[in-house]
Amino acid sequence: MNRLVFAALAALFVFTACPKQTVTTIAGSDDEVMDQIAAQLEELRTRTDATCKDFCSLKDKACGLSKQACDIAGKAPDRNDFQKKCVTSQEDCAKFNESCSGCPK
User: Fold this and answer.
1) pLDDT digit string (tens) for 58-74?
2) What is the spatial distance between Cα 69 and Cα 37, in angstroms, rounded to a whole number?
3) Distance between CA 73 and CA 75 in Å, rounded?
């Protein structure tokens, strides 16, 4: 009888326990913000009409987005998907810097 009561209490505790809360800011959860950053970087990366001048003006935006992505990844070192997006964003930043540095001054 005691085991049945204990099992019922344990089941009640499990089913009424609160799920892990996700941190949501005005911009959304970290997942949402990371997806927005990745989409913005993809948009910058796929521009086909960019000139040298454009690359130089877009590098600051790309590198700023990269910093945001890596800041989020730094808060969640156990999230491999965040770490990959950080690395990809750093590569994008480097490509924009490289494209800009090749432009005539």
Assistant:
1) 899 999 999 999 999 99
2) 7
3) 5
